[in-house]
Amino acid sequence: MKLTVLVDNNTLIDDEISFFGEPALCYYIEDGDKKILFDTGYSDIFLKNAELKGVDLSEVTHVVLSHGHNDHANGLAHLWERFDTSDMTLITHPLAFLPKALPTGDIGAPYTEEEAARHMKLLLSKEPVAITERLIYLGEIPRINDFENKEPLGRIRLAEGWEEDFLPDDSALAYRGKKGLYIITGCSHCGICNITEYARKITGVEKICGIIGGFHLLKEDSRLERTIDYLEENTNCDLYPCHCVSLAAKFAMARRLPVKEVGVGMQFIME
Ligand SMILES: [Zn+2]
Ligand SMILES: [Zn+2]
């Protein structure tokens, strides 16, 4: 499996190509004959970066949205404009399209479920979905520990009205490699430790070979400390926390864990 970073807050300094960056996330994943776009960033820069990197997005077979926030979902409308997406399958949680807001404004996807269904085949699932033999969309992540996802992030408009948003739609991918498990996350609002434990449970694979994506660690608080404790105990591999991880959190992690840099243009082979 090959993963190419198409959007991240950080871009690599490359002698030949200058990529675009934004506070958002989008990965292009190739596994056998399946080509998966994991999140779509905030704007249309994933299209520009894909072109610069020589990635042909007309070949995408699946789009996975980790959750409905606009820094992950906005770009999808640009994919519809550019390509014929009618054969592509969109996999996400059934609540990902609901309106979401902060006091400062709207932070949900800029389209409805019905609109998305006009452009793509929808596969909405709370349960895990095997995209390939080895790559799994995890669906709704059980919140099993007492230190992650304790505070809401804005509000979500459910059938009953506006409620505090604990991001029930937030999910991730797990890849069952030959030597162990790789985990690929969007924002980890539900908690990187919760995601890791659920990925282990669903795949039956204990050993973690790598984690890349947003870990949602922004403050130096007990969530960060306990996450570091968990990762130290449960992983023995390079970690690639990015997107929604502050520099202070990266420093704290790097004191005890092998933390690596992430930037647009990077490619990872996961076997
Ligand atoms: Zn988010
Ligand atoms: Zn995000």
Word description of this protein:
The protein is an alpha/beta fold. The chain has one domain: Metallo-beta-lactamase, Chain A. Helices cover 22% and strands 26% of the residues. It is built from seven helices and 17 strands. The protein has helices at 45-53, 70-73, 76-82, 113-119, 192-203, 222-234, 247-254, and strands at residues 2-7, 26-31, 34-38, 62-64, 89-92, 100-102, 105-106, 121-124, 129-130, 135-137, 155-158, 161-164, 172-176, 181-185, 208-214, 239-242, 267-269. The strands form three sheets. Strands 8-5-4-3-2-1-17 form a seven-stranded mixed sheet. The protein is globular and about 45 Å long. Bound molecules: zinc ion (2 copies). Residues 67, 69, 187, 189 line the site of one zinc ion (ZN).
State the order of secondary-structure elements, H for helix, E for strand. EEEHEHHEEEHEEEEEEEHEHEHE
> In the CATH hierarchy, what is the architecture at level 2?
4-Layer Sandwich
For the record, what CATH class applies? Alpha Beta
Q: Which kinds of small molecule does this entry bind, naming each only once?
A: zinc ion
Shape: globular
Mean pLDDT: 97
Do you know the CATH topology? Metallo-beta-lactamase, Chain A
Question: What's the tally of helices?
Answer: 7
> Which residues sit in consecutive blocks of at least 5 with pLDDT less than 50?
none
Q: Into which percentage range does the β-strand content fall?
A: 25-35%
Strand order of the largest sheet: 8-5-4-3-2-1-17
Query: The biggest beta sheet, please?
Result: 7 strands, mixed
Number of strands: 17
In which range does the helix fraction lie?
10-25%
What radius of gyration results from the CA coordinates?
17 Å
Assembly type of the shown chains? single chain
Tell me the number of structural domains: 1
Structural class call reads: alpha/beta
Tell me the distance between the termini. Answer: 6 Å
CATH superfamily membership, which one?
A: Ribonuclease Z/Hydroxyacylglutathione hydrolase-like
